[in-house]
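FORM 12-B: Structure-to-Sequence Request
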């Protein structure tokens, strides 16, 4: 039996509930969002640790360090939340890949969960230790960062192993002897380094956003704003140049250096570099960064799709059993609830940052309307979800 046939046999016999291209597009979108906060957390924690060693002699570093620790803490929360979605969409259309990897590297899957928990708890310890000015805060921060980086490495291992179906049997039974230890650990160093270095331009552009955002407040001095902006430019410039070199190396190994997607990413990096070095409002630069992130996510999916199709596994041939009620429920939740709730949080965050003194959300009409709408949608969603579930349960039981 050839590998393509085996892969297709491993598919879920129930099929998928909607068109594969939709899940593919959602994967590209949600992975880009997840990666953005992974990179911001990585860059933010690194800068926080550096700042913790300098804050006693510099008021600028002291203020920035506190804010970056807080940013890192929130970023880890968001990367965990947003990391669920791409895994689910991967599981739907590439289920053989994900489940086989969980068997080959099962021990590391468990280690990943506990490493993430440990790193996250230590990050909170770092946050409170730095806030109190503890001398051991730097060491705690370094340990937390190393553990979280290790968790990221494990997720890279799972992703890399999932696109190597031709090596699965060799890893499962090396030399003809079955290995059920679950300790397989394989990675692509060039691809991994490229993704890690993306944390530098992400952090640098975030610092430019931060400096523009606080520039309208009276409680941040021009000296501090200039300090943050210069630091952001330096980090972003270095990161973009380093990422470009590693990206070229990765594409050479993949044989995709002249692929239209690769060229589009190169163009976006050049544009970002020019924008970072200019005095263009950083919010526009962030827009280009978002496009670059989506292109990189699309390239990752293109590599996987092309490899799997070459082996005889085409996601567009996946049997479909369209479940319209579930699809409608998902889309309404994703669009109506998701955008309303995110709009509320972002609007409130923006107004808090732009208000001198304490911001009273109850007196702001826009924030109040968005908050009330979010609560109403959640309550309606609960009624529909549980009502629909109970109706289906009793209907099937009676029949």
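FORM 12-B RESPONSE
SEQUENCE OUT:
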């Amino acid at each position: 039996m050839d590998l393509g046939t085996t892969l297709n046999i491993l598919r879920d016999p129930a099929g998928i509930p909607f068109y594969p291209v939709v899940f593919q597009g959602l994967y590209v979108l949600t992975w880009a969002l997840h990666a953005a906060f992974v990179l911001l957390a990585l860059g933010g924690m690194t800068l926080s640790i550096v700042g913790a060693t300098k804050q006693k002699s510099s008021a600028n570093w002291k203020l920035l360090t506190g804010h970056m620790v807080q940013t890192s803490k929130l970023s880890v929360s968001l990367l965990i939340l947003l990391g669920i979605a791409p895994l689910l969409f991967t599981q739907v259309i590439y289920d053989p890949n994900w489940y086989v990897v969980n068997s080959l590297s099962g021990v590391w899957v468990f280690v990943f969960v506990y490493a993430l928990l440990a790193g996250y708890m230590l990050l909170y310890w770092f946050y409170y230790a730095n806030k109190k000015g503890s001398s051991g805060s730097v060491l705690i921060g370094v340990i937390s960062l190393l553990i979280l980086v290790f968790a990221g490495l494990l997720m890279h291992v799972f992703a890399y192993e999932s696109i190597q179906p031709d090596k699965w049997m060799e890893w499962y039974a090396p030399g003809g002897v079955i290995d059920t230890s679950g300790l397989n650990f394989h990675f692509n160093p060039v691809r991994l380094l490229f993704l890690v270095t993306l944390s530098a331009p992400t952090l640098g552009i975030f610092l430019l956003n931060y400096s523009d955002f606080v520039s309208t407040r009276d409680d941040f001095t021009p000296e501090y704003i200039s300090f943050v902006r210069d630091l952001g430019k330096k980090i972003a410039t270095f990161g973009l140049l380093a990422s470009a070199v590693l990206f070229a190396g990765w594409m050479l190994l993949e044989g995709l250096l002249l692929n239209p997607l690769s060229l589009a990413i190169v163009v976006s990096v050049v544009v970002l570099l020019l924008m970072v070095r200019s005095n263009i409002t950083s919010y526009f630069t962030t827009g280009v960064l978002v496009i670059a992130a989506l292109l990189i996510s699309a390239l990752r999916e293109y590599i996987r799709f092309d490899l799997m199709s070459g082996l005889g596994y085409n996601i567009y041939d996946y049997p479909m059993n369209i479940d319209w009620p579930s699809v409608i429920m998902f889309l309404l939740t994703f669009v109506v609830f998701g955008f309303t709730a995110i709009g509320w949080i972002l609007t409130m965050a923006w107004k808090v940052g732009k208000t001198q003194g304490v911001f009273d959300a109850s007196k702001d009409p826009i924030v109040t309307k968005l908050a009330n709408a979010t609560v109403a949608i959640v309550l309606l969603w609960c009624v529909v979800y549980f009502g629909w579930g109970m109706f289906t349960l009793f209907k099937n039981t009676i029949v």
